[in-house]
From TrEMBL, chains A, B:
<dbReference type="InterPro" id="IPR011650">
    <property type="entry name" value="Peptidase_M20_dimer"/>
</dbReference>
<keyword id="KW-0479">Metal-binding</keyword>
<dbReference type="Pfam" id="PF01546">
    <property type="entry name" value="Peptidase_M20"/>
</dbReference>
<dbReference type="Pfam" id="PF07687">
    <property type="entry name" value="M20_dimer"/>
</dbReference>
<dbReference type="GO" id="GO:0006508">
    <property type="term" value="P:proteolysis"/>
</dbReference>
<protein>
    <submittedName>
        <fullName>Acetylornithine deacetylase/Succinyl-diaminopimelate desuccinylase</fullName>
    </submittedName>
</protein>
<dbReference type="GO" id="GO:0046872">
    <property type="term" value="F:metal ion binding"/>
</dbReference>
<keyword id="KW-0378">Hydrolase</keyword>
<dbReference type="InterPro" id="IPR051458">
    <property type="entry name" value="Cyt/Met_Dipeptidase"/>
</dbReference>
<dbReference type="GO" id="GO:0008233">
    <property type="term" value="F:peptidase activity"/>
</dbReference>
<feature type="domain" description="Peptidase M20 dimerisation">
    <location>
        <begin position="190"/>
        <end position="346"/>
    </location>
</feature>
<dbReference type="InterPro" id="IPR002933">
    <property type="entry name" value="Peptidase_M20"/>
</dbReference>
<keyword id="KW-0645">Protease</keyword>
């Protein structure tokens, strides 16, 4: 493999250019910007490595599906997504979000971390392997979806309609990072679930002069009071039954969580905060991050929010709420409990608009595929990786994998300073190059995959 | 006076054109749009009726001051403002806010009701009087300020720096209306005070991925919890000491409030609401509207509020709060009580940005100037007026009048469907013409002003 690694280093500039090309193409699924052009960029890169590419239609944006090396004994799948989050607030970006800029050893661009960096690293790894060694020893499948940032509404449709294309022996999932100061790579075995909703409260049919607030109901106040019943200052979520289905952590879970890297001082400095929620630190912090559900206000808006003052009684108030779920919570049940809660607390007039939901997902840490990935990480990185029971974020893994026993592992090129979903998203160039190498190593080590061992641990 | 009234009716189209010219000139003080051009419009109209016009500099927008008929025994002052509220939300306007449009007997334009309609009615009345009768029997002063919609920060400066220009025997204030179905004119004797502030809560230095909400504080939640401590669902304001200084209503106050017109069914239909706050109606509703203080969310904003979903942990949350005050609450004390309240409830990190404040103001209902105005209303309108102890809205009256014993009365051309501060602001053309007539009647009746009676009742 050293020759492949050497080739990757020698051609780093080319692989960086490929990534820049991918990042410079906007592809904001929430706003339908650049999605068609982005597909063409993907098809070109997949075509260049000899993949057979298909555009699998869905009711939304299509899945770009590729296959390479048909006929080998084992199959490895790469799941990635080609859409990105909206780039606002634009005024906080130091360079154009869709014009990648290299500063201080990093590439700054919307999508560089989430997750065009990973997507391109997979493609570049295969390219390098082919250039140095030739034909791949395994089959490779690519599942590149265009709706991950809006909750992957059609990924389940893909899994149901194309069971042959879903069939695989292991999946490298998108979304991996490493720590900021502690540079060990994170190997993720799962994700939290999510239930994302918008609550809407309506008042008079249009905004009124605020003097009328003496006698006319204010939907902003009603929404505030409703929200205050959902979670208290001790961060306890007050929805009846919310915690009922949560599995307590196993000893293995706790052991994995305990080994997780989290440089509290570095994060505090990075985010300019004095401390963490509820003053947690150490193992308690790691457990909150990976194993506690959340209820988060992602956005709230009512009335006049511009410059200066305006004496207005708003006619509408809206809030976007994001619940992160842990095994075995489900988004459907949480949405129902929320509806019940609002009704029981006298807020039956508040409308719930479901946005997207996702189940939690965890791969068994003893699966031999996990060992393949760990071996590959050892081949490339100086330090041993950190194994995460699950990431704090969510992912549509369950939509492809629920009902199968396919193992999925997350490794990637981002780091904890990558500003996911925020201004100045970026990755380190070094991480990108390492990410190409580790993908190449997985392809090679996959032949050592102890397939027969799987039945023992499932 | 019938000749003057006839002249006004015969020249209605011209006076409407004058108003349209004034409305079509934007003059948004909060955003510094069109203010300079608006001054020139005023100077032209005041010049046309022979007034000596001065631009009185302040640290903000100047006061356009005019005098007419120097040397007469008595002086009447017209206070108006030439600035208007911002016009958003623009998408709810049926015609351009700054391109006045006549539909169904109404003039639709930002500022038509608040208060270019009143301002122009005063000028037109003098014009008509001059054309028909000639020289005015009284001195007239015009105080047209440009900062009413941002809290009149420099009107007190005017009163202090120009005591000679302030000197007068009575003021016709801006802001009058009539009911929607019950068409009786409202004669207002005062206003509520106001304390308008912005609260700001800060979290991490930039927006983060919402998965981090498990361990990083969310300023939106903190602001929600803080707001929920300010007012409960029973509409009780929970700030300690908030109600302490309020004067209980006198029997005269209650009597005036009881005679107030309020067509509850019409308002419910107009605003598309099922009922009023706390299910009040009748005298209880009128007392809430005129004599109860309020705490109103005029605007709140945090995180992502655009289309679609964005999984973000906000770094900032802001709310605009408007307290309406009644005698003898003061904005300074309310702001201090709010600061104390936040600190006592563990929200010392929430910053208070003062925006503007105003004291409540009430003219003695027995003042003979009130009788002059009531007589003039009788001369023009078929039905007797409704006398309001005070309007539900606020006004900078106290800034000119505190420490003097000058009586001030509000009459005007708007109605309860005028959409003050909201989209599709409008007045009826008929009300505008009547407003010109009643102003002319006040000028005439002012000679019957029983000046000597004033000392008896003060």
């Amino acid at each position: 493999m050293q020759k492949v690694f050497q080739y990757i280093e020698d051609h780093a500039d080319m692989y960086i250019d490929w990534l820049i090309e991918a990042c410079n193409q906007p592809s904001v699924s929430a706003q339908n910007r650049g999605m068609t052009d982005m597909k063409e960029v993907l098809k070109k890169f997949l075509g260049n490595i000899g993949a057979d590419v298909e555009e699998l239609a869905t009711k939304g944006y299509p899945i770009i599906y590729g296959e390479l090396g048909q006929g080998k004994a084992k199959t490895l799948t790469f799941y990635n997504h080609y859409d990105v989050q909206p780039e606002d607030p634009l005024d906080q970006w130091l360079s154009e979000p869709f014009k990648a800029e290299i500063r201080d050893g990093r590439i700054f661009a919307r999508g560089s971390a989430d997750n065009k960096g990973n997507l391109m690293a997979r493609i570049c790894a295969i390219h390098a392997y082919q250039q140095v060694i030739g034909e791949l020893p395994i089959n490779v499948k690519f599942v590149f979806e265009g709706e991950e940032e809006v909750g992957s509404p059609h990924l389940e449709f893909f899994a149901n309609e194309h069971p042959d294309k879903l069939q695989t022996d292991g999946i490298i999932w998108e979304g991996g990072t490493r720590g900021a100061e502690d540079k060990r790579l994170h190997v993720g075995l799962g994700v939290k679930g999510i239930c994302y909703v918008e609550l809407i409260c309506k008042g008079a049919k249009n905004d009124l002069h605020s003097s009328e607030a003496a006698i006319i109901e204010n939907p902003a106040w009603r929404l505030i009071w409703a929200l205050a019943t959902l979670k208290n200052e001790q961060e306890e979520i007050l929805i009846k039954g919310f915690y009922d289905d949560i599995a307590s952590l196993s000893e293995t879970d706790k052991k994995i969580i305990g080994t997780m890297a989290y440089d509290e001082e570095a994060i505090k400095k990075l985010y300019a905060i004095n401390g963490f929620l509820k003053d947690v630190s150490g193992d308690a912090l790691k457990e909150r991050l990976t194993a506690e559900p959340t209820c988060t206000i992602c956005g709230i808006e009512s009335g006049y929010t511009g410059e200066g003052s305006k004496t207005v009684l708003p006619s509408l108030a809206k809030v976007k709420l994001d619940f992160r779920l842990v095994p075995y919570q489900t988004p459907d049940k949480i949405a129902k409990l929320l509806r019940d809660h609002l009704e029981q607390n006298g807020f039956e007039d508040i409308e719930i608009i479901p946005s997207h939901g996702g189940y939690p997902f965890n791969t068994n840490p003893n699966d031999p595929f996990v060992k393949v990935v760990l071996q590959s990480v050892d081949d490339v990185y100086e330090e041993p990786p950190v194994i995460l029971r699950n990431l704090a974020g969510s992912s549509p893994m369950y939509k492809m994998l629920r009902g199968t026993n396919i193992p999925a592992v997350q490794i990637g090129v981002a780091n904890s300073q990558s500003n996911y979903h925020a201004p100045n998203e970026n990755i380190f160039i070094d991480d990108y190059i390492q990410g190409i190498k580790v993908t190449a190593a997985v392809i090679k080590n996959f032949n050592n995959y102890l397939y027969n061992q799987r039945s023992e641990i499932l």
